[in-house]
Design brief:
The protein is built from eleven helices and no strands. The chain is mostly helical and about 230 residues long. The relative contact order is 0.16.
Length: about 230
C-alpha cells in the first residue's frame, strides 16, 4: 500500500461525516431509546409484545428494506416528505440528515434493548423508597433509576454509535453517495473497491476498524477499572 499516493482531501471528508452522523444519531437514538425503554419496562398492556417486536424489526430486516421504507415515507411524493420540504425549503432525501435518520432507525433497537435490560435489573424497592418520601416519577427516574442504569446507558450509547458508524444499506438508499455531502466511510469503501482503488479502501477500512474497536473496548471496561 503506497501511503504517499493517498489523496488526503478525499480521505478525510467521509471520516468527518461518518463521525458527525454517528454522534448525532446515537444521541437521538439514546434519548428516544431511554424514554421508550423506561416506559416499556415499567408498564404492562395488551399488545405490548407486538409493539416491542416492531421496535426490534430494523435489527433483523435487510438494510435495503429499511432504506426502501424510509424512502417511501420521506420521499418527495409522500405527505411527510412534502411537509418537511415545505418547512425547510429542501427535501430530506439525499442530504446528510437522511443518513442521520437511517442511522437512528437501525441503532434504536440496540439502544432500546440494552436500556430495557438495564432498567429491568434495578431493584424496584429503591424506586418505591424514593416515591415513599415524596419523589415524583421524573425525580425517581432522574435521581434513582438513570444513575443505577448508568452502565447500561454507556453501553447503549456506544453500541448505537458503532451501529450508526457502520450503516450502509439504508443510508445508501435514502442519502445516496455524494462525495463531500452524503458519502460516509462504508459507502466510500464500496466505491473505492468497485473502482479498484485498494489503497483508499484499506485506509478507510482501517480507520473504521480502529474507531469501532475503541468504542467496543469502552463497553468492556470492568466497574473496578481492572483489565
Amino acid at each position: 500500500m503506497n501511503v504517499s499516493a493517498i489523496d488526503w482531501a478525499v480521505f478525510w471528508p467521509p471520516i468527518r461525516l461518518s463521525l458527525q452522523v454517528a454522534l448525532l444519531s446515537s444521541v437521538i437514538a439514546a434519548v428516544f431509546g431511554i424514554a421508550v425503554a423506561w416506559k416499556m419496562s415499567r408498564t404492562s398492556f395488551r399488545g405490548k409484545i407486538f409493539l416491542e417486536t416492531a421496535f426490534m424489526l430494523p435489527l433483523v430486516l435487510p438494510p435495503t428494506v429499511v432504506g426502501f421504507i424510509l424512502l417511501v415515507l420521506l420521499g418527495r411524493k409522500s405527505v411527510l416528505g412534502q411537509w418537511i420540504e415545505a418547512i425547510f425549503s429542501a427535501p430530506v432525501i439525499f442530504s446528510w440528515w437522511a443518513a442521520v435518520i437511517a442511522s437512528v432507525v437501525v441503532a434504536f433497537p440496540l439502544v432500546y434493548q440494552t436500556m430495557k435490560s438495564g432498567f429491568s435489573g434495578i431493584d424496584k424497592d429503591l424506586e418505591d423508597a424514593g416515591r415513599s418520601i415524596g419523589a415524583n416519577e421524573w425525580q425517581v427516574f432522574r435521581y434513582i433509576s438513570l444513575p443505577l442504569a448508568g452502565r447500561a446507558l454507556m453501553t447503549a450509547f456506544i453500541l448505537g454509535f458503532a451501529r450508526a458508524l457502520g450503516e450502509f444499506g439504508a443510508t445508501l438508499m435514502i442519502a445516496g453517495n455524494i462525495p463531500g455531502k452524503t458519502q460516509t466511510v462504508p459507502t466510500a469503501i464500496y466505491v473505492a473497491v468497485d473502482s479498484g482503488n485498494q489503497t483508499m479502501a484499506w485506509m478507510w477500512t482501517g480507520s473504521i476498524i480502529i474507531i469501532s474497536f475503541i468504542m467496543l473496548l469502552l463497553t468492556r471496561q470492568p466497574r473496578d477499572g481492572k483489565v
